[in-house]
């Protein structure tokens, strides 16, 4: 496809299909790309998500309109939208990240922000952020967080957006779509665990290092694994990326019983660029 703006220095006189066009799920991808041009298209979210989870990411563009959401209503204005659903008084949402939890692996946001000079954590990313509560808590502190989420068992992206924070519809398999050394903080809770293949997790940790600015904070919140995997696999994996550990707290994961010998740990790490002098109080 030829464009109207030509810049031969960047080969921008032509547009090429994204990587998703080379997807191995050729039948499913063909169905995804069979649509009425310039018209509304029936909801095919399940097909799109299947392609994403199978590595066809990013999906190729389409020249059609999405279906109109049924019974659509306008969202509440900010800040009412933050806690209309779920209400701030409901269960864990009332205290999560606001006060230090009952276990030593539960960190509060204020305990993390105090590590940096006031105002130096401004923008960031929450990987697999569920319903967007972490982003809401940070926005209450004038910090902008983008939340990645899939729509597994629910319309999570739409729900996050309804609260007035920004969702990003990508899986953990995709390269993080941010420029190098730009984010102040990357957070993830529960999603990064031993359920993710080790090689993929290693690439993801490097991705996080790439997008964090020098001195940026990686908050690995409640990572869980089997006991012997901690020192044998995941500690060396994280250390090999080059993070400098600031806080490292390990505890037992009790919700599935002691017999599984599961461990959970919460890590605060600082992104250190080689040859850089960093004062953590700044």
From TrEMBL:
Keyword vocabulary terms for this entry: Glycoprotein, Methyltransferase, Signal-anchor, Transferase, Transmembrane
Keyword ATP-binding: no
UniProt-listed GO biological process terms: methylation
Membrane topology type: Single-pass membrane protein; Single-pass type II membrane protein
Entry's Gene Ontology molecular function annotations: methyltransferase activity
InterPro entries (UniProt xref): Prob_Methyltransferase (IPR053223), Put_SAM_MeTrfase (IPR004159), SAM-dependent_MTases_sf (IPR029063)
Compartments, record wording: Endomembrane system; Membrane
GO CC aspect terms: endomembrane system; membrane
Entry annotated with the keyword S-adenosyl-L-methionine: no
Record family assignment: Belongs to the methyltransferase superfamily.
PANTHER family (UniProt xref): METHYLTRANSFERASE TYPE 11 DOMAIN-CONTAINING PROTEIN (PTHR44067:SF7), S-ADENOSYL-L-METHIONINE-DEPENDENT METHYLTRANSFERASE SUPERFAMILY PROTEIN-RELATED (PTHR44067)
Protein name: Methyltransferase type 11 domain-containing protein
């Amino acid at each position: 496809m030829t464009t109207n703006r030509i810049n031969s220095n960047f080969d921008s006189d032509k547009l090429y299909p994204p990587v998703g066009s080379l997807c191995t799920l050729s039948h499913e991808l063909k169905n995804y790309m069979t649509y009425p041009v310039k018209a509304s298209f029936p909801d095919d979210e399940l097909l799109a998500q299947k392609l994403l989870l199978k590595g066809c990411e990013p999906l190729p563009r389409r020249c059609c309109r999405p279906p109109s959401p049924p019974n659509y209503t306008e969202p509440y204005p900010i800040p009412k939208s933050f806690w209309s659903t779920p209400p701030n008084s409901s269960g864990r949402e009332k205290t999560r990240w606001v006060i230090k939890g009952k276990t030593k692996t539960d960190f509060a946001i204020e305990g993390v922000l105090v590590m940096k000079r006031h105002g130096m954590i401004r923008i960031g990313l929450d990987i697999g952020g569920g319903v967007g509560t972490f982003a809401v808590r940070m926005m209450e502190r004038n910090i902008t967080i983008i939340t990645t989420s899939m729509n597994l068992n629910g319309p999570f992206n739409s729900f996050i957006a309804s609260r007035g924070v920004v969702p990003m519809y990508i899986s953990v398999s995709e390269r993080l779509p941010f420029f190098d050394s730009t984010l102040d903080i990357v957070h993830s809770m529960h999603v990064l665990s031993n359920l993710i293949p080790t090689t993929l997790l290693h690439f993801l940790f490097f991705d996080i290092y790439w997008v964090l600015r020098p001195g940026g904070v990686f908050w690995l919140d409640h990572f869980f694994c089997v006991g012997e995997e901690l020192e044998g696999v995941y500690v060396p994996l994280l250390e090999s990326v080059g993070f400098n550990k600031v806080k490292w707290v390990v505890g037992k994961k009790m919700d599935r019983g002691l017999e599984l010998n599961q461990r959970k740990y919460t890590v605060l790490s600082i992104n250190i660029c080689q040859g850089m002098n960093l004062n953590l109080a700044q």
